[in-house]
Structures are given as structure tokens and as C-alpha cells.
Amino acid sequence: MYECRVSRHTGFTFSALALAITATPLPAAEGESRGSTEHVEVVGQAVSVDKALRQQRRSDNVESVVHADGVAQLPDQNVAEAAQRLPGVSIERDQNEGRFISVRGMGPDLNSVSINGTLVPAPESGRRAVALDVLPAELVQSLSVVKTLTPDMDANSLGGTISVESLSAFDHAGLFYTFSGEGSHDENTSENSPKFSGAFSQRFSLGSGVDNFGIAAAYSWSDRDFGSDNVETGGDWDFEDGSRLEQAELRDYEISRERTGFGLNFDYRPDDYSSYYLRTLYSRYKDTETRNAAGVEFADPMAPGTTGAAEGWRELKDRKEIQTIRSYVLGGERLLGAWTLNGQIGYSRSSENTPNGLNATFAGNDDFSDAGFSSRRKPHLNIGREFFAADSFGLDEVEWSKSRTTDTERNIKLDLARDYELSGHAARVKFGGKLSRRDKDNDTDILTFEDLDEHGLNDAQLAMGNFTSGSVDYGLGNFGPGLSAGKVKGLLGRLDRNAFYDAEESRVNDYDMSEDIDAAYLMHTLDVGDLRIIAGMRYERTRFEARGSGIRDGNYEKINADNSYTRWLPGLHLRYQLDKRTQLRAAITHSVVRPTFGQLAPGFVIDGDEASFGNPNLRPLKSRNIDLGIEHYLGRAGVVSAFLFYKDIDNFTYNTDLAGSGDWTDFSEANTFANGDRADLWGLELAWSQKFDWLPAPWNGLLLGGNLTVTHSDTSISGRDPNSGRALHRNIDLPSQSKRVGNLMLGWEDDRLSVRLSVNYKSKYLQEVAGITDKKRDLYVDDQTFVDFSARYALTKNLRLTFEAQNLTDENYYVYSGRRSFNAQYEEYGPTYRLGLTLTHF
């Protein structure tokens, strides 16, 4: 049955590709000569690349840019997937969709995201990283990754600052609108999904001005049904006894992901000396996930091909997660003689709401004999038919949860600049300040329904057969019946919920944190011939407070912690114009990045000789950064560049176990977070793009591009030997750092047709560090190569047909423990295909 499913999907793949590749101009109607055919021009790849390179070339920073094309659409489905095409950028995927951005080997939590100049807080409870799949691509006019910070910018990023700008009426002359409708097909689940989007802008004349007031709006809605097939061990291998497996679990995911985005922007330019704007953005992301799981734990660790006794279980996870981002930015600029005054007030609020989360576990009634597995990389369970029968299991425990996280950022900033001459050279002095107030809180309620037989329920009522719902469409082998969340909730509705309230888990996860940052800067720009020099200093003072609860041997304790620190951050930028097309860049900058909120969380749990806790007293990460590079521009949509970079990092944060030391001398476990001494990161970033418009037709439509970033890191972690208590050190790579990240793009376009084939590659990276003496249990994410194809065909001047195919090679997600042959997680997604129509006027 599985082979038939693959064969059918393969046919769809080749049919869809053939449709896109063989698209040709429509023939003239009868009685109409070809010479009188309406001229149609695709505004696409070359225009978008050329706009991006112009912005990159003018920038005082080392910056990489993705620009929307003439119909205000980025070349990918969401902001994260568009950013992965840039040099030095890789993404972390969730269910095969781009989500978090890594820049130059730095983890997503070490970068910052701003929308229209104001910081975007993170919806998730423990993170600073913003999941950029929350932002539909249609709401974005341009996306840039700034890799060297000038003193007038927030210093809270190490890899880069991801800057998102939304549509303005002044991006187009006169009336502009576009509407798109799209259908997508997920090959793994055979589900079809709709998407609709649109954008509008227009200028109006107010007072005595002409076209001095603009309104722009953009909207996007999609509801995608998809899923994945998974098998994982969690890295549970017994490496002391011949690398034998301890347990494995099969997982099937069914997901419905609805995105709604809306932006409304106003611009007013009353005269040549002033401009004012209001930028608003709302994005809502609703994820409904059902996960069926079936697992075994072997009585004795097993080698492939052998059999023995095992305990089995079934599990159902059903949850709805709603993330929202609201952003409002009011600002303006005014020329006051030789002075320029800029001001901005920003308010952003992110939230994550998870109501009625359900996690139900069904235990096997008896052990399963003759259980085993084959293949260490993608374990396949070899087990009797009774493991796949509903009457072999009974309901054991249900966890019900409700949580809400909010993260609010309020800021105001003021900049004042003056242009003047210094010894006959153009110069500018600029200074200003910013006040930022951030509050993050989390509220969790958990009910744990266990020992149900003591609450009036018998074995017959708890039998798994009462809770099944059809069979699971699992592509990696046999699975058996699925479970129904509605039936489980129906049973819980008969119980007294108050009797199952889990005070420990609920209270320990609650917190309220505030982070206040006061900043000021002074910078000076001087142009001496072909050399531009920017030098300055930024001052940032941070005050941090955290409130929460801990539990010590069953007794609750309130926690109040505060921390404050000051940083002086000098910066120097040089840009030298070698000739009209070539420029050199150099920069020495400093960054300060605060630990994640999960690392700073004040809650703790101490139970006997085991403890786990956050660390509100963590020091911020500091980095001294050096960048040196050259850019040579090759005409329209063309550039070749090379950059060297180095980062000297202090106070890197990592997981550690303090058992056996200090206050934790008599503990067997004391898991928390600590600051490392230092880390170093080196890298080389190469990029090339070119439009071959000087070649004879049809080669003049060819567009090629590629980039490669190679990095190397050197850092270490500290801990104690759990047996001897002796202090130990171990060298590791920086987590989330791929040593090689690259992109290749082959495009072609003429007046009607535009096609693009793109390849994105990133090498393996360290995901999670195990104990100081347990290197074999470090978890690594294996290398990945994604191949995507897109085609756009202009049916008329204003109407075009689009086709996209993502993950054509059916790349999987694989995590391994220590060595590639030892599975921690293997997941398959399959390709996704999209077909749509876009109507545009501009």
C-alpha cells in the first residue's frame, strides 16, 4: 500500500513540473496578427535582485537584502524561507516549514527581529527568537539581515538583525493593487489547502500638496493541512553494551496551520522638509496538531535483528496553539536647517495561547514478547500483531494543560543629525537615545489525571478500544488504530477536575519578568575622497527583574531576583570606493545579547537529591566582532563579494549539571544554566549573482546566483565528573552552528515566463549538549539539501499563473546521537505543490 502511494505522488510530481516548464505564450486570436499582440512584461527575479543589491550597495552596514518584486511578493511563502536564500543565513524548520533564522552560525536566540524599526518580542515562553513563519510573505516589502551594527542601532544581536519593512504607498507611483488565489497539495497526506492574499496602495493630495498622503494595506490568509511521519529513539542507546537500543517510538503528525496577516500603513509628506508615518501589523498563527504515537521500551537493550520482551504504550497528543503579533510604529522626520530630527514610538505585543492541550498515555496490559527492531538509522519495529491491537492497551494517564505567554515591548527613540563640512570634507554628527521597556509573563495550569481506577473507573471503561478513531496513515510501516481526543475528553468530563490539579507543575512554570534598557549613542561620519569613516560609541544600561515560584521538597517558595549591568560599545566602520563598481568594507563592532527567558526563569524544583532550576543571575553574552570584505557590482542584478568575519564571545550560556559542587555537593542532579568563559567564531562568506542580459536570446534571460558561508567555532563547557567530582572541560562547537551553508539559484525569464530552480544546503550542527563525560549522547542535526522550483507565466499584462514545488527531493529531518548511525529522530514530509493566479495593477 505504501509503494502504491509513492508511485501515485511521483506521477503528480512529473505532471506538475511538465505543466510549469512547457508553458508558452498564448497564440494570437483568429484574425489578429502577432505583431499586434499586447506587450506583456514579467516583473520578477531580476527586478527584485537588482533592488536588493542597490540597497545593499548604499548601506553603511554589511547587509544582505531580499526585496519584493513588482507585485509586492517575496519569492517564498514566509519571511524565514525568503531569508534562507541570503549569504550566511540558514533556517530551522518545523514540519518542513522554515521557522527560525540562524545567521553566520549563531543560534536564533542570538539574533533580533524588528518590524518597521521596532523590536518584535517572541511569542514562545522561553525564547527570544521570533518564529518568522508567523509573518506571511505578502505583508513584507523588503527583508534585510544587517550583520554589522552601527552605534545608532540596538546592540542586541550577534549573528545579525533581521529587519522587516512593510509596504508603503510611496513604493509605487499612483494606484497599485494585487490579488492572489492559490491551492496547495501536500504529498505526504494528499491534502489540498487554500490561500488568498492581496495588497493595495494609493496616494492622495491633501491641502496644497500633490500626492503627499499615502495609504497602503496588505492581507493574507491561508489554511494548510499537512503532516509528517516520524520514528525516534530520543538518543536512548546503551553505548556501554555494544550500542544497543533501549526504546523507540513511532509518531504520526496531522496538522492544520491557519495564518492570517493584515497590515495598514499611512504616510504623510506635507512638504520637502518633513515626513510622518504610521505602520501597523497584525499576524495570527493557529496551529492545530494531532499526534498519534506507539512506542516500546525493551526489557534489556536490544541489538538490531534480535528479539526479547518489551513494554509497549500508545500516546495521543492533541493541542491548539495560537500565536499573535501586533506592532504599531508612529514616527517621522523633520529637516531643521542643517539638522535632521527623527523620532519614533513603537509598541509590539506577542502572545502564545495554548488552550485545552491534551496528552493521553495508554499502557500495555502485558509485556510483548519477541520484540525487536531493524536499522539503527530508521528503526523499524519487529513485533507481534497484538502490539497493533486496541485491546492490548488501557488508559493510564492524561495530562491536560492550558498556558498563555505574553511578551510586550514599548520603546521611544529620538535621533538628531547635522551635516557639515570638516576641512572641506562632507561630515555628519549624529546622536540620540532610546528607552525600551519589555515585560514577559507566563501562566500555566496543568491537570494530571492518574490512578483513574481509584476514581470509580474500571478496566472496561479504560480500554483503549473505547477511544479509537479509524486507522493511522503512517508511511514508515504498520501503526494500527488512531486515538480520538474527543472521546478522551468525554471521559474526563465525568470526573472532578479539581481533584487532579497539579500545583507543582502549574506554579513552577509561572513567571513575570521585566527588562528595561536605556541607551544613548554618539557617532560621526566623515567622507574623505572615496573613503567613508563611521566611528561612535553606544551606551546601554539594563535592569532585569524576575518573579516566580520554586518548590523544595513539597514546600513552595516565592522567588524575586534582579540584576543590572552597563555596557559601553564602541564601533568603527570603513567603506572605501576602489572604483565605480568596487568597494571595500571593514568594521569593528561590539554586541551585547541577553540570555533567553527560559534560561533566566526563576522557578526551581528540588526533590530529594535532584534539582532543576533557571538562573536569573546569568551575565549577558558580549562579543567583539571584526568584518572585512570586498564587493564588486556587475551591472543589473549582478555582484560578487567576499567577507571574512571573526567573533570573540564572552559569557556564552550553556546547560550544565552542578551536582557535586558548592551548594549542590550532596545532589545527584542539579541541572541549570551557566556562563562559559569564551568562544571564538571565524568565517568566510562568498556570494555571486549575475543577469546575463548581454547574451543573445534566449540566453539573455538567464540569471545565476550562489553563495557559500564556511564557519569554524571553538568553545568549551565545564562540569564535574559525576563519580569523582573532579572538574572537567570539554571542547564543543557552538550549538546551531552549521560549518557550511550554501545556496544555488538558476533562473530564466522573458516578457512572459519566469522560472527558478533553487538549492539550499546546510551541513550538520550540534543541537543539544549531553553531560560533560557523555559526548556520545550529544545530539546533532544531520545535513540537509532542499530543492525548490517556481514558475510564473503572464497570461495578460495584469494576470499571471504561478506554480511552485517545494522539497522536490523529499529531504528528511534526521537527528542522531554521537554518530550518524544512531537515531534520535527521523522525520519525513514529502514535497508540496502550489498553483495560483495573481491579478495586479501598477
From TrEMBL:
Record carries keyword Glycoprotein: no
GO CC list: cell outer membrane
Mode of membrane association: Multi-pass membrane protein
Record-annotated TonB-dependent receptor-like beta-barrel domain positions: 349-808
UniProt keyword Transport present: yes
Origin superkingdom: Bacteria
CDD domains recorded: ligand_gated_channel
Location in or out of the cell: Cell outer membrane
A Pfam family that the UniProt record links to this protein: TonB_dep_Rec_b-barrel
SUPFAM superfamilies for the chain: Porins
Keywords assigned: Cell outer membrane, Membrane, Receptor, Signal, TonB box, Transmembrane, Transmembrane beta strand, Transport
Domain named TonB-dependent receptor plug: residues: 58-161
Major place of residence: membrane
Signal peptide (UniProt feature, chain positions): 1-28
Family membership noted in the UniProt record: Belongs to the TonB-dependent receptor family.
Full protein name: TonB-dependent receptor
